[in-house]
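Predict the 3D structure for this chain.
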Amino acid sequence: MSQPASIATNLPYLRRFARALTGTQASGDAYAIATLEAIADNNVADGALEPRQALYQVFLKIWGSIPVNHRGCGDAGSPAMLAADRTLEALTPLPRVVFLLRTLEGFSTTEIAVVLERSQAEIQELLDVAGRQIASQLSTDVLIIEDEPIIAMDLEAMVIDLGHSVRGIARTHREAIALIAGRAPGIVLADVQLADGSSGLEAVNEILAAGDVPVVFITAYPERLLTGDRPEPAFLITKPFRPDTVKAVISQALFFDRRAKLPA
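Done. Predicted structure below.
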């Protein structure tokens, strides 16, 4: 596969990683664009690496060289970005990067060691550090919008294992709205297509109309959300998923949300 074709294939996933790392789509996309420009202008990608590894390596070198508070247009000073800054201070940057590469992007510890040019032993230690830091987050109540009973049960078990409580499980748009009962949950896990043909996306939009709530979309149809149009979800998991991925993304979403509600 040519370099342009490889970049096109991996760009949606790089954008997902960038958004999770920085906290907003605009900020993540700013780093992704800088990465593409660096590759196009200077051909800085390591030709010895597998193309996806090389793309992430260039991105992370740029991310490490630009201050974390260097944001895309319109982000500076927003509560979400201030929350992201405080979160990144609480969860030291390198463990956070390693944790996301492993649990969100699916890189093996060997691949991460290659991307970051570090030993596998150091990568494993960084993963352990990240796990301990993320485990310190406060618990909340979770609304699950999912029409497949087995998947819903799996998600419920993961949520409880993380130390959170489950507000309820909704199989339809109507059930989801009924479960919030005038009080927003701490976070929403939502599928896109529901049992009665209704849309999880519409249910989420109605919930968000009543107040800001972090949302994690868990879907077999990521192309419906990663379209390149704005806005796009900051937190997206593709089915079939791994439990550690779901847990990681829930923690990431709550990091940004909880910090945004704290005084600076």
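Confidence is low (pLDDT under 50) at residues 68-76, 259-264.
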